[in-house]
Amino acid sequence: MHARLAGLGFKPQHAGALLAGEAVVDFLEVHAENYMVDGGPRLRLLERLRERWPLSVHGVGLSLGGLQPPDAAHLARLAALVRRFEPRWVSEHLAWSAHGGTCFPDLLPLVYDEAALVRVAAHVDRLQQALGRQVLIENPSTYLEFDASVLDEGEFLAELVRRSGCALLLDLNNAWVGAVNHGRDAWALVAALPPSAVGEIHLAGFAEDRDAAGAPLLIDNHGSAVADPVWALYRRTLQRLGPVPTLIERDHEVPPLAVLAAELAQVRRALAETPAAAAVGADAPRRLSRPAPAAADEPLPAFAAALLDPAAAVPPGLRAWNGSDPAVRLAVHRNNVAAAWVRALADGFPVLRRLVGEACFDTLALTHARHEPPPGPVLGDWGDGFAATIRRCEPMHGLPWLAEVAQLERARVRAALAADAAPLATAAVQAHLAHPEHLPGARLQLHPSLAALCFDHAAVSIWAAHQGDELPPTLATDGAEAALVLRDAGDAVLTLAVDAPAATFCAALAAGRPLGAAAAEAGPALDLAATLALLLRHAAVVGWEHRMEAA
C-alpha cells in the first residue's frame, strides 16, 4: 500500500478553487452520507471531482461496533454510491452510532473484548461482502473506557484485521487524542498494528480541555491545524510503515484552501523523505491485556439512554484512567450528539433560525431531536416533523406562521436532494396539446422535486424577506399564501409564489389525479392555462399519459 499521495477532505466551499487548480491534491475524500441523495447538484459535482482525482469514500454511519448488524437499507445506499463512483478507498470507523432505532451522530466507544471482536468482525465481513471489496477501518478518538475491556485498542484492531481481512485507516490525531485522554503512549497503538494492513493515514486537529481532575482532555474537533506532536508521530509512523497515502481533515472552522494546501505540502515533504521500504520488526504477539472481568450486562444500551437524557447519571462500567469523575468525559459525547443534531437542522432551516434567534432555535432543535431523533445517519433525511414540533411548542402558539416557514424550508431541502428527471420535450408537449379532447384524462408526471404548499399566513413573503443580509423593518404575517417549490434545470431551488387554486391543482397532479379531476379540485378560480404554462416554463412536467376516463 506504499504510495506518496497527499489528499484532502473535500468541502464544497473549496470546489471552485480545486477545479481551478489552486492546490496540488492527489486525492479527495468525501463523507459517504453526504452523497446518499437521489439526485441533484451534489452528485453532479462529485462526478466532476471524480474525473480529476481518485476518491476516498469515508462512511460515518454504519455503526459497525453496534449490537445490531449494519442497517440493510443504509448498506445498500453505500453500495450504490460505491458502484457509481468507484472510489479507490472505502473506509468506516471502529465505533457505534445507532441503537434502538435512534441514530447518534457521533463515533461512540465500545468494549474491547472477545464478544465485541466476534460481532465487529461479522459486521465488517458483511460490509465487505456487500461492497465486493476490502474496506479500511479507522481507529476512533475516545474519552472514556469500559471496565469490561480486556484488549488494548491496537490489539483489538490487529485481531480484527486477522479475522475479517479488512485493512486499516490509521488516524494519528485520534491516536494522539486517545493516548493523552487515557494516560498512554500513542506509539503503542501504532506499534501494535500490522504494517502491511495500513492503507491510509488521517491527520487532523484537536481542541484542549480539562477533565474533572484537571488533567488534559483532548477533543477531536477537526477544527484546527494539525498539532506539532501529531506531526512528530506522523513522521515516526512513516519510518515504520513506509509512505502511506495521507489525508488532511478539516470539518469545522474550515479555512481557505491555501491554508490547507500548506499542510498538504508538509505531508508531501514527509512522504518524500520516507524510504520506500520501511524497517519494521515482527508483529506483536496476540495477548490479553488483563484477565477478563466477571460477566456483566452489555453497556451500550445504558450508554445510549444516557445520551438521550442529559440529566441521567453516568452508566455503570465507565471509567477515566485517572479515577476522575467520568461525567465530564461523557459530556463530550453528549455535546457532540446535541451539536450535530442542532447543526443538521440549522443547515436546513436558516430563515427559521434568524426569525427566532439562535438560542431559541437550538432549544427547538433539541426538543425535536429528543422527541423524534433521526432514525438513520443521513441527516438530510431528517426534519419532516420539525414543523409539527414547533406547532406543539407552547411558546410558539402565538406565532403560527413559524411552523409554515419551517414547512417551506423543509420543502426546499427535499427539492435540492430529489431525484433527477428530464423535462418533457417541447415537441411532445405540443403533440399532447393538439388533442384537447384528451386533456381531462391526461395524467401529468411532475418533477420529483416539486412540492405544492398552501399556508394560512404569509409564510412565502416572510421567507422571501429574509433572503438578504438585512432584516425587514416590519414583518407582515397576515394573509394566506401558496407556493410551488422545485429544482430547475440549472439546479437552482425555486420558490414560486402562486395562488391557492394553482397550488391545489399541482398537488393533485403530483398525487396522480388526472388533469380534469385536478382542475375540478382546484375550483373555478384556477387559471389552467397560466398554471400549465408555469409548469412547462420551469421544466416541471416530466411525463404525460393519456387515459380515457370512464363516463
UniProtKB/TrEMBL annotation:
Domain Putative DNA-binding: residue ranges: 302-388
Entry-linked Pfam families: DUF2063, MbnB_TglH_ChrH
Cited Gene3D superfamilies: Divalent-metal-dependent TIM barrel enzymes
Family under the similarity heading: Belongs to the UPF0276 family.
Protein name: UPF0276 protein EV684_10879
Organism: Rubrivivax gelatinosus (Rhodocyclus gelatinosus)
